[in-house]
């Protein structure tokens, strides 16, 4: 009567439309009628019955007519994610999930005008299943090159049954060519946006398409699997969430990675492609920092978020693995040796404590006791980390000076500079024969009184 395909009838009180009059007619239609008034009518007792007060308005669910062989994605509210529905003889129905694979999904995405790369068909059976929609196609067997799924071999509804009795579903990608890579294989991993090859946001290749990994449930175990797959050390692998290495332009490809840390491929860990497509947005990209093999005794500074190369957590290579230093006995003489070994001046070397503790690397040596004259840290007196415990302490860190001016002063000595008298001015302190100023953060009269006492001495 109104141009749609027949659907289902139902009753409801339509409480959101309280002023609609109720016509007390019952209709009995048979055959193809163009109007309800052409059907047999009788007077109903709606006004006097129980049903009048609790919902006896007639309702109908109609369906739009479809073109035979048309395909659509439904069930998620998103155009590129959901169960596959196909029009057969004017009716919409689903595709049996039994034999549905990436080749079939590729044809679906192509027919809908989306990219044939980055297609996902391995979707949990329960995500978009709708028992009210009949399964119309069985045993779909596309090669992946067809333009329409009706050009693929299939079996229509009949005696054939769907053993799992669930609907095939798909994730398509929009046509964004810069993420296509015909040389990568499913599960390949790369790190992007870091300062070196050992760090960055995590991207995965799936069906020749690079997508970002969502940080939902991202952990150090996942980071270990990433680093192992890339050929780096797993010890000290650190996970980062919240797009620490920035948001990439490509869409999220996978989420909820769940590794134990022993896997050789991240794709072999538990995962969720659907959640990545539906719920991951900007600010939710997983990141990783890996470690590599090193030369025994080498020293480096790490952990500075400013990019400064003269500031950082002290890491030392022990048995060809990067480790940290316990700051329990960390002092000025130790800091001098680190700065000298790194090519900076030993003058003004400032030890800092628990500023950049990262919590993943083990302590390589403990009980460090340098004189300040050594050229390499391992030349200093130290203990084996296994023999010397370091409870409740953090990682040692240091600030090295680039072009310090040597002064005839001793560490801890203070002076006032730039004031109108000898009793006021900018506070400077001597650290390893170099004068430097003091940050005013949290500075108050208590610290100032200590300076005056020092000056009086």
From TrEMBL:
- Which Gene3D superfamilies is this protein grouped with? SRCR-like domain (3.10.250.10)
| Pfam families with a match to the protein in the record | SRCR (PF00530)
Matching InterPro entries: SRCR, SRCR-like_dom_sf
- Membrane topology category: Single-pass membrane protein
Answer yes or no on keyword Lipoprotein.
no
Task: Identify one Gene Ontology CC term for this UniProt entry.
Answer: membrane
Top-level taxonomic group:
Eukaryota
- Signal as UniProt keyword: yes
Q: Where is the SRCR domain?
A: 71-173, 189-291, 299-401, 414-451
* Swiss-Prot/TrEMBL keywords: Disulfide bond, Glycoprotein, Membrane, Receptor, Repeat, Signal, Transmembrane, Transmembrane helix
Query: What is its subcellular localisation?
Result: Membrane
Disulfide pattern: 142-152, 259-269, 326-390, 339-400, 370-380
Chief place of localization: membrane
- Quote the PANTHER family the UniProt record gives: DELETED IN MALIGNANT BRAIN TUMORS 1 PROTEIN-RELATED, SRCR DOMAIN-CONTAINING PROTEIN
Q: What is this protein called?
A: SRCR domain-containing protein
Record the organism: Amphimedon queenslandica (Sponge)
The major lineage groups are: Eukaryota, Metazoa, Porifera, Demospongiae, Heteroscleromorpha
């Amino acid at each position: 009567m109104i141009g749609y395909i027949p659907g289902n009838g139902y009753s409801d009180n339509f409480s959101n439309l309280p002023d609609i009059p109720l016509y007390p007619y019952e209709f009995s239609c048979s055959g193809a009628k163009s109007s309800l008034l052409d059907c047999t009518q009788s007077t109903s007792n709606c006004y006097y019955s129980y049903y009048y007060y609790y919902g006896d308005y007639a309702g109908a669910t109609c369906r739009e007519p479809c073109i035979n062989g048309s395909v659509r994605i439904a069930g998620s509210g998103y155009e590129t994610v959901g169960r596959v529905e196909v029009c057969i003889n004017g009716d919409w129905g689903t595709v049996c999930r039994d034999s549905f694979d990436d080749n079939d999904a590729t044809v679906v995405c192509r027919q809908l005008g989306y990219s044939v790369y980055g297609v996902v068909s391995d979707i949990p059976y329960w995500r978009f299943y709708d028992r009210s929609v009949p399964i119309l196609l069985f045993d779909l067997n596309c090669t992946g090159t067809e333009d329409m799924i009706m050009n693929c071999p299939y079996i229509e509804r009949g005696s054939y049954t769907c053993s799992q009795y669930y609907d095939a579903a798909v994730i398509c990608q929009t046509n964004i060519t810069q993420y296509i890579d015909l040389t990568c294989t499913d599960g390949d991993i790369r790190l992007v946006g870091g300062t070196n090859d050992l760090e960055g946001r995590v991207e995965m290749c799936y069906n020749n398409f690079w997508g970002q990994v969502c940080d939902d449930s991202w952990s150090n175990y996942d980071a270990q699997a990433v680093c192992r797959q890339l050929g780096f050390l797993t010890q000290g692998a650190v996970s980062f969430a919240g797009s620490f290495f920035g948001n990439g332009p490509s869409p999220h490809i996978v989420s909820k990675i769940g590794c134990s840390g022993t896997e050789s491929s991240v794709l072999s860990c538990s995962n969720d492609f659907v959640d990545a497509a539906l719920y991951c947005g900007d600010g939710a990209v997983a990141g990783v920092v890996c470690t590599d093999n090193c030369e025994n005794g080498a020293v480096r500074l790490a952990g500075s978020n400013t990019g400064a190369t003269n500031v950082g957590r002290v890491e030392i290579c022990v048995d060809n693995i990067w480790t940290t230093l316990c700051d329990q006995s960390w002092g000025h003489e130790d800091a001098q040796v680190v700065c000298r070994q790194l090519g900076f001046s030993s003058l003004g070397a400032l030890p800092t404590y628990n500023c950049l503790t990262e919590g993943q690397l083990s302590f390589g040596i403990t009980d460090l006791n340098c004189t300040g004259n050594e050229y390499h840290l391992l030349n200093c007196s130290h203990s084996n980390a296994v023999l010397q415990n370091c409870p409740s302490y953090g990682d040692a860190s240091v600030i090295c000076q680039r072009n310090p001016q040597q002064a005839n002063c001793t560490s801890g000595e203070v002076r006032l500079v730039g004031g109108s008298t000898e009793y006021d001015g900018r506070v400077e302190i001597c650290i390893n024969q170099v004068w430097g100023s003091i940050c005013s953060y949290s500075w108050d009269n208590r610290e100032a009184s200590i300076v005056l006492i020092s000056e009086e001495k």
